[in-house]
Amino acid sequence: MSEPRIRFDHISKSYGPLCVVDNLDLDIAKGEFVSLLGPSGSGKTTLLMMLAGFETPTQGTILVDGEAVNGVPTHRRDMGVVFQNYALFPHMSVAENVAFPLQMRGVNKAGIAERVTGALDMVQLTAMRDRWPAQLSGGQQQRVALARALVFEPRVVLMDEPLGALDKQLREQMQLDIRALHNRLELTIVFVTHDQSEALTMSDRIAVFNKGKIEQIGTPREIYDHPKTQFVAEFIGETNLLQGTIESVDGSQGLIRLQTGGQLSATLPNVMRTGQQVLVSIRPERIELKETKTGMNSFAVNVTDSVYQGDHLRVQLDGNGNSVVARLGRKSQEWPIGANVVAEFLSSDCWVIAS
Questions:
Q1: Residue (of 149, 150, 166, 145) closest to 92 by Cα position
Q2: Secondary structure of residue 90 in the 3-state scheme
Q3: How far is residue 101's CA from residue 90's CA, in Å, rounded to a whole number?
Q4: pTM of this structure
Q5: Which CATH class, in words, describes the domain spanning 6-232?
Q6: How far apart are CA 135 and CA 149, in angstroms?
Q7: Helix (H, G, I), strand (E, B) or coil at 85
Q8: How does pLDDT run across 61-80, given as a tens digit for each residue?
């Protein structure tokens, strides 16, 4: 990465004895969409508020385009902010809400009119410019909030759980809309969410937060397919974790002796030693169910539950002390409860995590 647009350098934030953000480092490139993902209380929103200027770091430096902004007031940081509750002015029309940041920056009337029209056209709300916020749906209000954050062409856009109040269908559409705007305008976006699917859908990179620290940062594919810790593996989507010990290592492949008995071949993230205690992560959609064993990573199991969930079947399996979940395509064979089958998966689909 060249000179980052945003750099968090050894940032900490404490409230009395409570440390909310703990000596955190993070670089975000110009034009990058980075999601801060984690459970409530993990520090992600506090970090965003420090970047916006609403909170002050206890220690460390925040730099934007190479300049420290710790002492810079919020209104001088050139950042657009979108909150979950929209924060629209109820006594102003849609156009007036969008114009407000420009008025505060002393833009002339002709410039305001032109840029407001452009911003509303960008979020497809030109026809509603004269309506009051109360006359809009939740999704429309969120689009107005987005237009207001973008109208003055900020160098960074900050979003704090902006889609949390929307219903599922509208939320998914807004995810795609925001992603499209990011790509078209080459925006630098820092996006706070606790929704794993949302982060996977929208982000260039995801920073997974836990107890004030970043457990892992990487692309959605890296985070999902190659989790570095048990927390990341369990927080991002659903996974099966099997305990075992490394029996042998051959390059990037390891032979794992499971705690419950039996062996499997799995992919190692880096150099690991024989005898090391590990967890093996297997995503449910990587498991196939067959009538007979055809490969090494095969286990006899019993179908204990099967739930139809529209686009897939969620099948609970138990056998030889192992309890795992498989996610099968809707066209897959539906095995009856009690059926004796073989669960099979590739070694490349088993990812080893140090326990």
A1: 145
A2: coil
A3: 16
A4: 0.90
A5: alpha beta
A6: 20
A7: coil
A8: 999 999 999 999 998 999 99
